[in-house]
Each structure stands twice: as structure tokens, then as C-alpha cells.
Design brief:
The protein has 181 residues and is α/β, with parallel strands linked by helices. 25% of the residues lie in helices and 22% in strands. The chain has helices at 54-63, 65-70, 83-92, 110-115, 152-164, and strands spanning 12-16, 25-29, 40-45, 73-79, 103-105, 127-132, 138-144. Strand 4, helix 3 and strand 5 (103-105) form a beta-alpha-beta unit.
């Protein structure tokens, strides 16, 4: 599995960005991750569309979209399902209709494989979360097994700590003192 300090792999994938007819899909590439505007990226993966735990996580990321935006951070959700499955799921699931971030389709499973997050039996993605800095370098990785949802508030807490570029003690939260060496 790729880890902290490594460059996020190159990719070009189709993503669902809207439910508006004719504007549903866009291509997102790894170039989207690097920028001179100090914009970070959080990419989070789920195993399968039309399941039970996954929409709770996606909806929670969406509820916190403004928190990520306030931190100059883009959100990208991803799975190994197709863009058409993503679009159908968004259309038919009340909590997913108004997503404010793209749902990336990795149907070839090449990006999940490059990241090292494919479950070996079903070849679906684990619940992996990557925080990527504006240079395209992975700064944090968290991976949950298939049946356990992640904690979006923890992703925000870690993002806050990384963006301080300071020493942050255990349980540190934004606004608290950092450590001096």
C-alpha cells in the first residue's frame, strides 16, 4: 500500500459530478491534485455502491463539505464501480442526490491497485482515506476493513493538524496549542 511521503499515482478517470442531463460526467486526472494555490485533496474510497455502510460515509462527507472547503481542501469519493452505477445510485438514494463532490469510477481497478487498497478476494476497494498535499504527496492514510465506517471528524482533525505544519499532540484539535521543540 502506498503511504505517507509517496507521490499519489497518476490517473485519468471518469467521475459523476452532477445529475443534470448532459452534465453528469467529467474526467478527473492526477493533475487535479497538484496546484500552486495551496489546495489539499481528500480522496476516500468505499467498497461497493448500493450497500449499507457506504452511503452513511458518503452522506457524512457531504454534510461536512463546507468544513473541507473552508480548509482549502477538495473532496473526491471513489470506488471500483462504474460511473453509470454511481449515477444510478445518486439518482435513487435520497442522501446522495445532492453531493457536492465527484464520485470517481475506477472500473479498471488500476488506481485502487496502484494504491494497494484492493481487497484480495472480491477485488473491491477497502475503506481507504488519503490526505494529499498540494504537491500531490500523500500525507495521511487510513484504511478500515469492509464492515466498519470511518470517522469524518477524525479526517478533518488530522487535516487541520497537517495544515498547521506544527507538532500536534494526542487528541489535538484546531484552535488548541501546538507543541514547541
Amino acid at each position: 500500500m502506498l503511504t505517507i511521503g509517496q507521490k499519489f499515482p497518476a490517473f485519468s478517470k471518469t467521475a459523476v459530478v452532477s445529475l443534470e442531463k448532459g452534465k453528469e460526467f467529467e474526467t478527473i486526472t492526477s493533475d487535479y491534485l497538484t496546484n500552486d494555490d495551496n489546495v489539499w485533496t481528500v480522496m476516500f474510497w468505499w467498497p461497493k455502491d448500493f450497500t449499507f455502510v457506504c452511503p452513511t460515509e458518503i452522506a457524512e462527507f457531504n454534510k461536512n463539505f463546507g468544513e473541507f472547503r473552508d480548509r482549502e481542501t477538495r473532496l473526491i469519493g471513489a470506488s471500483t464501480d462504474s460511473e453509470f452505477v454511481h449515477a444510478a445510485w445518486r439518482t435513487h438514494h435520497d442522501d446522495l442526490r445532492d453531493l457536492k463532490f465527484p464520485m470517481l469510477a475506477d472500473t479498471s481497478k488500476s488506481l485502487a491497485e496502484d494504491l494497494g487498497i484492493l481487497e484480495p478476494n472480491e477485488k473491491i476497494a477497502y475503506r481507504a482515506t488519503f490526505i494529499i498535499d498540494p504537491q500531490g504527496i500523500i500525507r495521511w492514510v487510513s484504511v478500515n476493513d469492509l464492515n466498519v465506517g470511518r470517522n469524518v471528524k477524525e479526517v478533518l482533525r488530522v487535516l487541520d493538524g497537517l495544515q498547521t505544519d506544527e507538532l500536534c499532540p494526542c487528541n489535538w484539535e484546531k484552535g488548541q496549542e501546538t507543541l514547541t521543540a
